[in-house]
Amino acid sequence: MSFYDNRYYYINKTFLSLIGQWPFQSRLEGNVMLATTLFFICSLTAFELLSLIEGITNPSVFMQNTSQLLMDSLIFAKLVNSIYNKYKMKDLLEHIEQTWKTTQIGPENEILRSHAEQSRTLTIQYAFIIYFMGLFYSTMPLVVKRIHSLLPTNGTYETRFLYNLEHILDVDKYFNLLMLHGIISIFLLLSVGIATDSMFILCIQHVSALFEIVRYNLKCIRDSDIVMLKPDIADDEAYHIIIRCIKSYKRALNYSELLSSTYAVCNFFLIGNVIISLSISATEATMVKNQLDELIQMIAANTGQLTHIFALSLISQRLIDRSSRLHEAVYSCNWYEISLRSRQLLRFTLMRTLKPCEIKVGKIHVMSLANFSAILQVSMSYFTMLSSLQ
User: Fold this and answer.
1) In angstroms, rounded to a whole number, what is the distance separating the alpha carbons of residues 186 and 161?
2) How far apart are CA 88 and CA 212, in angstroms?
3) Where are the beta strands (DSSP E) in the chain?
4) Where are the transmembrane segments (predicted)?
5) How far apart, in whole angstroms, are the C-alpha atoms of residue 302 and residue 282?
6) Cβ partners under 8 Å of residue 288, min gap 6
7) Residue 171: its pLDDT value, please?
8) Is the Cβ–Cβ distance between 264 and 361 less than 8 Å?
9) Distances in whole angstroms, Cα of residue 90 to Cα of each of 83, 140, 372
10) Helix (H, G, I), strand (E, B) or coil at 365
11) Which residues contact 75 (CB under 8 A, 6 or more apart)?
């Protein structure tokens, strides 16, 4: 049985295998799943693009299809990033497995288990919200059509689809087939986002656990009975603890740098895409009149977008907070009771821990809750500008 078949990582393995991006699955299985995912995503995008081109003079068609195309392009960017950085992701996962093998017992293992359990819980909650919003979005035409068929009314209901396709196809004639294709495509679109984002959450939680292990070991210096200023190096227990902490801290920093570089370009595209998409979607909502199904679809799509960017910002903020706590641990230990050589090491360690570990986007933007608020403010500014142009 694979290491990743355990309770903590099996869900991540399942999501990545579904889209053919699990680094350890067979090449045949991975290529088949990836080809299936690409077929449905690309065909859905082609329909939306064709609809946009044909109805570009209609503001409603333009706004709706542009918003959907932006979301599709974001998911496609995540998939391309996953394919391009597959070997980096494999290195990230192998580092996790190696860490677990070297810390199988003791308090350090409990820290790993605690953070892995948090990662599992966050992944389940995130997947549930995204899939739930996707269910609302994709099944709304079916629900509304069924309601209208049951209502005792003489009026006729014009069948609405997931996106404006009425001006290029007979939606009534191919409604069931188009809905089946749309639901499968949206499911795979959401699965790509959940799989790649849950991988990001998993790695963030792991590097946070590494920082917590370093913090725990630094606190062990308090229990040392060494009070000699210049003891023999072989008997200097605090010195050896600090050396181990520095090595562990360096490994955690290298891991976070690898993680940041893996998602740097994708997250840079994510920020710009989300700002534009939210602005257009909010503007589109103001143009909807007496169309409850379309309004519910917009709410579901925007809620999914906000949940997506908020989850990534929240987990990145946790990494900043966990790495910042190392500074407090170094500062609060009983440094005045250890040897001079140990104090010297602590001094350089304290200087490095003043700078928190961050996930940067294109070496410009830092993923955090503060910048999440900035994204919302910019989106509202663009929304205000687009609304004034109506």
Assistant:
1) 13
2) 24
3) 360-361, 365-366
4) 32-53, 123-144, 174-195, 258-283, 295-315
5) 8
6) 294, 295, 298
7) 67
8) yes
9) 11, 39, 29
10) strand
11) 41, 189, 192, 193
Sequence length of the chain is: 390
d(CA 159, CA 190): 25
Alpha-carbon distance of 190 to 18, in angstroms, equals 11
Q: How many domains does the chain have?
A: 1
> Is the CB of residue 181 less than 8 Å from the CB of residue 43?
yes
Token reading at 57: 């003079």
* 366 φ, ψ (degrees, to nearest 5): -105, 130
Write out the two tokens for 205: 């939680």
296: tokens are 């519910």
Question: Residue 290: left (phi > 0), alpha (psi -120 to 50), or beta?
Answer: left
pLDDT at 223: 45
- Give how far Cα 319 sits from Cα of 29, 202, 212, 271, Å: 34, 12, 10, 19
C-alpha 188/C-alpha 185 separation (Å) is 5
Alpha carbons 72 and 326: distance in angstroms, whole number: 40
Query: What domain range is 109 assigned to?
Result: 3-388
> By the 8 A CB rule, do 18 and 195 touch?
yes
Q: Which two tokens stand for residue 86?
A: 């597959």
Q: Could you report the average pLDDT of every consecutive run of 10 residues in the chain (390 residues)?
A: 82 92 89 92 84 70 74 87 90 89 84 91 92 83 68 56 66 76 88 92 91 82 56 67 82 88 83 80 66 73 85 89 79 70 74 79 79 83 71
3-state secondary structure of 344: helix
- 388: its two tokens: 């004034």
- In 60-86, which positions are buried (b, 16+ CB within 10 angstroms) versus exposed (e)? ebbbbbbbbbbbbebbbbbbebbeebb
pLDDT at residue number 246: 82
Check residue 226 and give its pLDDT: 46
